[in-house]
Amino acid sequence: MIGATVILYKPDMGTTQNLLEAVFQQVDVLSIVDNSPSPTELSLDKANLHYHHFPNNIGIAAAHNIGLQDLRSSGCDYGMLLDQDSTIDDDFAFRLSSLLVASKVEKRPLVAIGPRIICSFSEKTVKPRVQREVLVYDDIVCVTQIISSGMMIDLSKLDVIGYKDETLFIDGVDHEWCWRAKKQHLMVAIADKVEMIHRLGDSRSKFAGITYKVGSPVRLYYQFRNVLLLSRRGYVPWYWKTRNLCVLPIRFFANGLLQDRKLERIKFMLCGLWDGLCKRNGAFSDNW
């Protein structure tokens, strides 16, 4: 059985409804975790549908965990994670799950697989600047980490790896889980011929010829804090630590001086740096 978990937060229901309908046709069980202030009105058959509403926003990691627990308790073998702003093809779940099944038959230590990401802003395939491809098996490209949206997980391996780290709340949650899987000698991969359109960030901006993602001010708190928190962990790759620590000053400058709501952004970045140094985790509202 295949299940899916979709996380909602103040969704644009035009796009999100299309995603939910597409997912509902491809899986046996659908779990929706809604972090929006008000419940989202859904036009879906209630059969095999789990809906949870958390008006106080429990974070992406806790939302994923609730959804994954729903899928496991419903007897699913594989679980797919999706954000509300992703767009998938009609055979998306089948193609990803087939690759996981084939890997299990061939006794490859593959725990999760995701698609090639096409950025909805540039309409181009996202190519990480630093991450290298580790190994290639036919249509499977093993890598060090993949994003959570579009990720198909072998649910039986959660007992070995564990669930998502809820202390991070958001930002870095997907990568941290992948690195923890690698620590257990399990691999994550990209399906080379499966693509998914996904919205990365709220908008785009350019500085010194480099285009970068722009998110809401509060996301800066988690981004800055979690870099400091994750950089202390031994299983986090050195290339990730080096790159993210080195670009923190540049990101502070770009977000503090080149974007709107400058003082608000600076406040969240400073709070994130302070809490990262003090090893505080959880939601921003818990600490400030």
Report the CATH architecture of the largest domain: Alpha-Beta Complex
Tally of discrete structural domains = 2
Return the average pLDDT rounded to an integer. 90
The CATH C-level class name of the largest domain: Alpha Beta
Main pleated sheet: 10 strands, mixed
Count helical runs.
Answer: 9
What is the straight-line distance between the termini?
43 Å
Radius of gyration: 19 Å
Bin the helical content: 25-40%
H/E topology pattern: EHEEHEEHEEEEHHEEEHHHH
Quickly give the structural class.
alpha/beta
**What does the overall shape look like?**
globular
Query: Which runs of at least 5 residues are low in confidence (pLDDT < 50)?
Result: none
Strand content: 15-25%
Number of strands: 12
Question: What features would you highlight for this structure?
Answer:
ten-stranded mixed β-sheet, two-stranded antiparallel sheet, Nucleotide-diphossugar_trans, 9 helices, EC 2.4.1.-, 288 residues, Spore Coat Polysaccharide Biosynthesis Protein SpsA, Chain A, glycosyltransferase
